[in-house]
Amino acid sequence: QVQLVESGGGLVQAGDSLRLSCAASGRPVSTYVMAWFRQAPGKEREFVATISRSGGTYYDDSVKGRFTISRDNAKNMVYLQMNSLKPEDTAVYYCAAAARAGQKYDYWGQGTQVTVSS
After folding, report:
1. What gap in Å lies between CA 109 and CA 80, rounded to an integer?
2. CA 44 to CA 23: how far, in whole Å?
3. DSSP characters for 47-100?
4. What digits encode the pLDDT tens for the residues 61-117?
């Protein structure tokens, strides 16, 4: 199984950029479907972006054109580049892994807080 640790969160102003990192250990990230989710206070966790084992990406409409998910197989890392941040992007961001597309995400990191001030 894989262990995931997120980092890179922080407090930024609207319009700023942040890059979140997800460090994986135990198994190669290239063998998983990797994704980022987020959970804002008082709201349910929601999907943000995913990258398939072949490198294909998919984004929620709310972040399309602003966020980019990527993977570095040599470093066993997954990233989320977030540009043009908005206050509504404020949330705890989680990295997750699934064995196959369409399957449940079984592996989760502990989360990293992103706060965007207006």
Report:
1. 14
2. 24
3. EEEEE-TTS-EEE-TTTTTTEEEEEETTTTEEEEEE-S--GGG-EEEEEEEESS
4. 999 999 999 999 999 999 999 999 999 999 999 999 999 888 899 999 999 999 999
Are 38 and 93 in contact by the 8 Å Cβ rule? The answer is yes
What count of other Cβ atoms lies within 10 Å of the Cβ of residue 73?
12
Encoded tokens for 85: 């941040």
Give Cβ neighbours of residue 22 (< 8 Å, ≥ 6 apart): 4, 5, 6, 34, 36, 77, 78, 79, 80, 95, 109
Q: Which phi and psi angles does 60 have, rounded to 5°?
A: -70, 150
Neighbouring-strand partners of residue 33: 98
